[in-house]
Specification:
The chain has helices at 2-38, 60-66, 117-123, 290-294, 376-382; strands at 40-46, 49-55, 76-78, 88-94, 97-103, 106-112, 133-134, 146-151, 153-165, 176-190, 193-210, 214-223, 227-231, 236-247, 250-263, 268-275, 300-309, 326-328, 339-343, 353-359, 368-372, 385-391. By secondary structure, the chain is α+β, with helices and mostly antiparallel strands. It has four domains: 40-94, Ubiquitin-like (UB roll) (Roll), CATH 3.10.20; 97-151; 155-263, no CATH class; 286-391, RlpA-like domain (Barwin-like endoglucanases, Beta Barrel), CATH 2.40.40.10.
Length: 393
């Protein structure tokens, strides 16, 4: 009897336990199904670090809060934080990187999640000029701590004018009086400071004398050996402009761009006597020529072309060193070693005096003398002059 009672009790207990287990299992299965229905799968890419999350949060913002994921003020997230999560989701976070720019004496800070130096400059609203320089190429990718320097490059042409006397001018023009050189430079500035200066061109303006010519006419009413100055010679003046161009500091071209006659030269006109003079009487011999009488016993006057020369480092044709008071001559006209009297035109009349013929020259032919001066500048200033030479025969 007791055994039957125990069996009945055990069967009841088992039934209750089984009922409880079934209920619990049903609840567990239902809860699991509920969790399954409510949960979402999220693939989170946080600046390259990818994790898979299962969550029951409703929005992206809820998810970030749950996992303590903090966004910086310049970070970017896709989709945005207000987006409602779906069953399956993909969230990408791009963390901002700081880049700094020094430009126009100002420091700019830019935050970007991606891009190049060009994107950084655009973000900072930095406009580059045609010649501006950057410390990095424009296609350089954004990296942590990138520091960019922008150098402003400006260019301008600067003109300077230099005036030179004939002695200082680098010219072979023996008639040169004055020279003006207008130099044009290309000046480059970096951030307001000059960094280079290159000569581009020179405009050379030269003012020169125009020598006058001597015209000799026969006069059959004037005795042979006499001459008469009908018109004094007068030098003219000419202005010449020369354009010189340069490249990399070297001259590449030189061209005369303008020539202007400021004053025309006036030729000297001399009449030469062709009339045969009568047989001289002994008493009238001192009156051989009109010019000779003016020479006051210095000999017969002849018209010569005078040039100038200076030290050559050599002795003269007579073996002495040249000095002031000596001239080079054509020995067929003026005997070497002889002394002649030379009369110069104004403004060189202060040079009038006796000169000794001590030298010769390849270009000294006929009625030409070469007057010695101490300096090359004096020679340039003198140029070519018409003089009277009194020769004692």
């Amino acid at each position: 009897m007791e055994s039957d009672s125990w069996n009945m009790f055990r069967n009841k207990y088992f039934i209750v336990f089984l009922a409880v287990l079934i209920i619990f299992t049903a609840i567990a299965v239902g809860f699991a199904q509920y969790i399954k229905n409510k949960s979402k799968v999220v693939m989170l890419d946080d600046d390259g670090e990818i994790v898979e999350l299962v969550t029951m949060e409703n929005t992206v913002e809820d998810l970030l809060k749950k996992y303590n994921i903090v966004l910086g003020p310049h970070d970017k997230i896709v989709p945005n934080v207000d987006t409602v999560l779906e069953k399956e989701n993909e969230i990408v976070i791009k963390r901002a990187t700081v880049a700094r720019i020094i430009v126009d004496s100002d420091l700019k800070t830019v935050y970007l999640t991606e891009g190049t130096v060009k994107d950084i400059l655009d973000e900072a609203n930095v406009k580059l000029g045609e010649d501006d320089l950057t410390s990095h190429e424009l296609d350089t990718p954004l990296t942590e701590g990138l520091f960019i320097t922008v150098n402003r490059i400006t260019k301008e042409f600067v003109t300077e004018t230099v005036e030179l006397s004939a002695e200082k001018a680098e010219s072979d023009n023996e008639y040169l009086e004055h020279e003006e050189v207008e130099k044009t430079y290309l000046v480059v500035y970096q951030d307001g400071e000059e960094i280079s200066r290159a000569l581009q061109e020179e405009l050379i303006t030269q003012t020169s004398r125009i020598p006058f010519k001597e015209e000799v006419k026969n006069n059959n009413k004037l005795e042979i050996g006499k001459q008469k100055i009908v018109q004094e010679g007068k030098e003219g003046q000419m202005e010449k402009k020369i354009m010189v161009t340069y490249e990399d500091g070297k001259e590449t071209s030189r061209e005369v761009v303008e020539e202007t006659i400021l004053a025309k030269a006036q030729d000297k006109v001399v009449e030469k006597g062709t009339m045969k003079k009568p047989e001289p009487k002994p008493a009238s011999q001192p009156k051989t020529t009109e010019v000779a009488s003016r020479g006051s016993g210095r000999g017969t006057a002849q018209t010569f072309r005078a040039t100038a020369y200076t030290h050559t480092g050599n002795r003269t044709a007579t073996g002495v060193w040249p000095k002031v008071g000596m001239i080079a001559v054509d020995p067929r006209v003026i005997k070497l070693g002889s002394t002649v009297y030379v009369e110069f035109p104004k403004p060189y009349s202060h040079l009038n005096g006796n000169y000794k013929a001590t030298d010769t020259g390849g270009a000294i032919k006929g009625n030409i003398i070469d007057v010695f001066f101490e300096t090359r500048g004096q020679c340039r200033q003198f140029g070519r002059r018409t003089v009277k030479v009194f020769i004692n025969r």
